[in-house]
């Protein structure tokens, strides 16, 4: 059985995809960019502010799916510029301080809406 997840506490999809899909015990989150769900706009600020917004969006989607950040098993991070890695990582560490999922970090030539970061995640729903 497949279930599609949607919450108003995260940005509405800007294309033909779901915020997340639950398949069995896994929750697959689409890549999230730093859109403020209240305004529909990209958040002001640099990599730290954008990373925080993305992780808050992910947290909201996970909660709607019946999970939390502690259930995340894999994360894929796309950074516009790897020179932002240390600043990104400091904010990321605040969200994943105890349970640390597997992670890949990739520098992308371009990201939607010219943002600095996009994050996709997979969680295991117990």
UniProtKB/TrEMBL annotation:
GO terms for molecular function: deaminase activity. It holds the Pfam family Ribonuc_L-PSP. One of its GO terms (cellular component) is cytosol. InterPro entries: RidA, RidA_CS, RutC-like_sf, YjgF/YER057c/UK114. Belongs to the RutC family. This is RidA family protein. The lineage of its organism: Archaea, Thermoproteota, Candidatus Korarchaeia, Candidatus Korarchaeia incertae sedis, Candidatus Methanodesulfokora.
């Amino acid at each position: 059985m497949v279930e599609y997840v949607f919450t108003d506490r995260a940005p509405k999809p800007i294309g033909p995809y779901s915020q997340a899909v639950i398949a069995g015990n896994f929750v697959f989150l689409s890549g999230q960019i730093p859109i403020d769900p209240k305004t529909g706009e990209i958040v002001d600020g640099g990599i730290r502010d954008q990373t925080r917004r993305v992780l808050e969006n992910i947290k909201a989607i996970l909660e709607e799916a019946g999970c939390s950040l502690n259930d995340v098993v894999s994360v894929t991070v796309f950074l516009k510029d790897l020179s932002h890695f240390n600043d990104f990582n400091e904010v990321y560490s605040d969200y994943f301080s105890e349970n640390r999922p597997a992670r890949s970090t990739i520098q992308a030539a371009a990201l939607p809406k010219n943002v600095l970061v996009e994050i996709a995640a997979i969680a295991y729903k117990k």
